[in-house]
From TrEMBL:
Species for this entry: Saccharicrinis fermentans DSM 9555 = JCM 21142
Ranges of residues in domain Mur ligase C-terminal: 310-423
Name of the featured protein: UDP-N-acetylmuramoylalanine--D-glutamate ligase
Underlying gene: murD
Function description: Cell wall formation. Catalyzes the addition of glutamate to the nucleotide precursor UDP-N-acetylmuramoyl-L-alanine (UMA).
Family: Belongs to the MurCDEF family.
Predominant subcellular localization, coarse grouping: cytoplasm
Length: 446
C-alpha cells in the first residue's frame, strides 16, 4: 500500500503524517511553500526525512503515489491542480492516519463549537476511564499518535471542513454535526451549498450500526436531511422542541433521553454558560450516553469542564470593566453567540480577514448591545458599511495595543470589552491563538 508519499505542509499534521509514513516503510518527502518551524525541522532531520522549504519542487512532488495535504492549502493552488491533472490521489492527514489503526472514531464538525464540544466529549470519556485519544484540528495529530504512541481504542476528532474535503474512505462510528452557518466561503467559490456538502462528508461511509448526532434547530442541516439518505441512527438535539431519542431543553434543564432512559442537568449548574454551550453540552451528553457512562459521572464532568482558551475566556476586570477573549470567533455566527451571551453593554473589538461575511444576522443584536465598535484590521470597509448608524461609536485601529486602549477609554464601569472578531486573523496575526494571546497581554499591560 505504501510507496512514495509526499507531504505538503510541515506543520503538526504534516510532520505527524511523515513520521507515520516512514514507520510504515514508505519513501517520504515533505514540501512546504513557507519556512518550516525550527522544532518541526529538527524533528524531520532527526528522523532522516527528506524535506524542502520555501518552494514546491514539482519534479519531486509529481512522482508521488499519494499526497497528504495540509488542510490550510486550498485546492486551487498550482501544485494541487497539477497533482489532480496527473490523477495522483490527494488526501488529508486524518484519511491517511485512519488507514493504519483499528480504533473507532467520534468525529465532530460544525461551523461553531467544534473545539468546545470535542474537548467536553474527551473530558467525559477520559473521566469515565475509557481508553481514548484526542486529535484532528486540535492537539497532536492523529498520524503522530498512531506512529509514536500505544494505539487507543477510541479517538475523539475535531474535524474542519478543510480536513473533511480530503477524506474519502474514513468512517465515523459516531458523527456529530453541530451547525452549518456561512464560513470559509472564500474557499468554496462563495457557494453555500459547496460548504454544506463539505460538512456532510462527516456521515459518508456510515452504516446502520453507526450514529449521527445533529442539531434539529439548524435550517441548513434540516434541509439537507430531506434530500440525503442517512444510513446511521439519528439522534437530534434541540433548544426548541422535545425529542424522543436525543437531547432537548425544557424547564431550565437539559434532558438527555436515549431508549426511554432519561437524565437531566440544570443549566445553571453547568461549568460553561450561554446558548451556544447549551447545544455543545447536548451533543456531548448524547455521546456520553451512547458509551453507557454512569449518569453521576456524566453530570460531574459537565459541571467540572473548564472551557476553551480564546472562546469567551474571561481575562481580567479593569476599573469595573470585564475583558473577554473570544478570538476563536472567526465567523459572524460565532460572534452572534458571543454577543447574545453578554448581559451588559459591550465594547466590541472585531475585524480581520473577511471570509465572505454577511453581517445581516448580527445587526439587530449589535444595535441592542454594542455601544462602540473597535475595528481591528487592515481593511475595515465592510464593518464600517454594515454598522454605521447601528452602533453609536465606531473607531478604526491597526494594532491590538491600540484596540485594547481604545476599548478601555470607550468603556464604563460594568461594560464588557469583547474581542470577538467574526473574521480570520491572518492580516495582522499568525493565527487566532496569537491574536488572543496578544489581547490578553495588552489587557494585563493596561
Amino acid at each position: 500500500m505504501c510507496k512514495r508519499i509526499v507531504i505538503l505542509g510541515a506543520g503538526e499534521s504534516g510532520v505527524g503524517a511523515a513520521l507515520l509514513a516512514q514507520k510504515r516503510g514508505c519513501e517520504v518527502f515533505v514540501s512546504d511553500k513557507a519556512f518550516i518551524k525550527e522544532s518541526f525541522k529538527d524533528e524531520l532531520q532527526g528522523h532522516g526525512i527528506a524535506f524542502e522549504q520555501g518552494q514546491h519542487s514539482l519534479d519531486k512532488i509529481l512522482c508521488a503515489d499519494q499526497v497528504v495535504k495540509s488542510p490550510g492549502i486550498p485546492d486551487r493552488v498550482p501544485v494541487i491542480i497539477a497533482l489532480k491533472e496527473k490523477g495522483i490521489p490527494v488526501i488529508s492527514e486524518i484519511e491517511f492516519a485512519a488507514q493504519y489503526t483499528d480504533a473507532k472514531f467520534v468525529a465532530i464538525s460544525g461551523s461553531n463549537g467544534k473545539t468546545t464540544t470535542t474537548l467536553l466529549i474527551y473530558h467525559i470519556l477520559t473521566g469515565a476511564g475509557l481508553d481514548v485519544g484526542l486529535a484532528g484540528n486540535i492537539g497532536q495529530s492523529l498520524a503522530r499518535q498512531i506512529a509514536l504512541d500505544a494505539p487507543k481504542e477510541w479517538y475523539v476528532l475535531e474535524l474542519s471542513s478543510f480536513q473533511l474535503d480530503g477524506m474519502y474512505d474514513f468512517k465515523a462510528d459516531i458523527a456529530v454535526l453541530l451547525n452549518i452557518t456561512p464560513d470559509h466561503l472564500d474557499r468554496y467559490d462563495y457557494e453555500m451549498q459547496n460548504y454544506i456538502d463539505s460538512k456532510f462528508r462527516i456521515v459518508q461511509n456510515q452504516t446502520k450500526d453507526d450514529y449521527f448526532i445533529y442539531c434539529l434547530d439548524d435550517e441548513n442541516i434540516l434541509r439537507e436531511l430531506e434530500v440525503r439518505d442517512i444510513k446511521a441512527q439519528q439522534l437530534p438535539f434541540s433548544n426548541k422542541v422535545e425529542v424522543s431519542d436525543g437531547a432537548f431543553f425544557q424547564d431550565n434543564k437539559i434532558v438527555f433521553n436515549l431508549k426511554e432512559d432519561a437524565m437531566s442537568v440544570f443549566i445553571e449548574q453547568l461549568a460553561i454558560q450561554g446558548q451556544h454551550n447549551r447545544y455543545n453540552t447536548m451533543a456531548a451528553g448524547i455521546v456520553a450516553r451512547l458509551f453507557q457512562i454512569r449518569k453521576p459521572s456524566i453530570r460531574e464532568c459537565l459541571l467540572s469542564f473548564k472551557g476553551v482558551e480564546h472562546r469567551l475566556e474571561k481575562v481580567l476586570k479593569v476599573r469595573g470593566m470585564s475583558f473577554i477573549n473570544d478570538s476563536k470567533a472567526t465567523n459572524v455566527n460565532s460572534s452572534w453567540y458571543a454577543l447574545e451571551s453578554m448581559g451588559t453593554k459591550v465594547i466590541w473589538i472585531a475585524g480581520g480577514v473577511d471570509k465572505g461575511n454577511d453581517y445581516a444576522e448580527i445587526k439587530e443584536l449589535a444595535k441592542e448591545k454594542v455601544k462602540a465598535l473597535v475595528c481591528l484590521g487592515t481593511d475595515n470597509k465592510k464593518l464600517l458599511e454594515n454598522f454605521k448608524g447601528i452602533v453609536p461609536t465606531i473607531v478604526e485601529v491597526s494594532s491590538m495595543a491600540e484596540a485594547v486602549k481604545s476599548a478601555y477609554y470607550l468603556g464604563d464601569k460594568g461594560d464588557a470589552i469583547l474581542l470577538s472578531p467574526a473574521c480570520a486573523s491572518f492580516d495582522l496575526f499568525e493565527n487566532y491563538e496569537e491574536r488572543g494571546r496578544m489581547f490578553k497581554e495588552c489587557v494585563r499591560n493596561l
